[in-house]
Amino acid sequence: QVQLVESGGGLVQPGGSLKLSCVASGIISSNPMGWYRQAPGKQRELVATITPGGSTTYADSVKGRFTISRDNAKNTVYLQMNSLKPEDTAVYYCKATMIWGTDYWGKGTLVTVSS
């Protein structure tokens, strides 16, 4: 029943900014949420997480540049990406963890950082 849809990806120049959105079909106010990414030829990696209460964690590679946030009234999670680097190029995925432990993933949105 839970569906996640990411949007906001695209082509951006190094040093630029981009904001990703993840809209959930169901209520996510009680769910931990996260953003992950997978670069070409590499394994999927954690980018950021946010708890129902708003506590956040970040991968060292994005700390200080990315900000995860949520708007529970809109069932939406965001990832603000600033000072983008070519190495940030990847498909970005949104994840929700249900109370019973099942993870739900979006289909991803491609972010390409290139001049």
Nutshell version of this structure?
The protein is mostly beta strands. Helices cover 0% and strands 50% of the residues. The termini are far apart.
Descriptive notes:
Strand 9 and strand 10 (103-105) form a beta hairpin. This protein starts with a strand and ends with a strand. The protein contains no helices and eleven strands. It is mainly β and 115 residues long. Helices cover 0% and strands 50% of the residues. The mean pLDDT is 95. The strands form two sheets. Strands 2, 4, 5, 6, 9, 10 and 11 form a seven-stranded mixed β-sheet that branches.
Can you write the helix and strand succession as a string? Answer: EEEEEEEEEEE
- Through-space gap between termini: 40 Å
Major β-sheet profile: 7 strands, mixed
Helix content: under 10%
In percent, how much strand structure appears in the residues? over 45%
Low-confidence stretches: none
What is the tally of beta strands?
Answer: 11
From the spread of the alpha carbons, the general shape counts as: globular
Provide the residue-averaged pLDDT.
95
Counting H and I runs of at least 4 residues, what is the number of helices? Answer: 0
Q: Which structural class do you get from the secondary structure elements?
A: mainly beta
Radius of gyration: 13 Å
SSE blueprint:
Layout: E1 4-7, E2 10-12, E3 18-24, E4 33-38, E5 45-50, E6 56-58, E7 66-71, E8 76-81, E9 90-97, E10 103-105, E11 109-113
Parallel strand pairs: 2-11
Antiparallel strand pairs: 1-3, 3-8, 4-5, 4-9, 5-6, 7-8, 9-10, 9-11
List keywords for this structure.
single chain; 115 residues; mainly beta; 4-stranded antiparallel β-sheet; globular
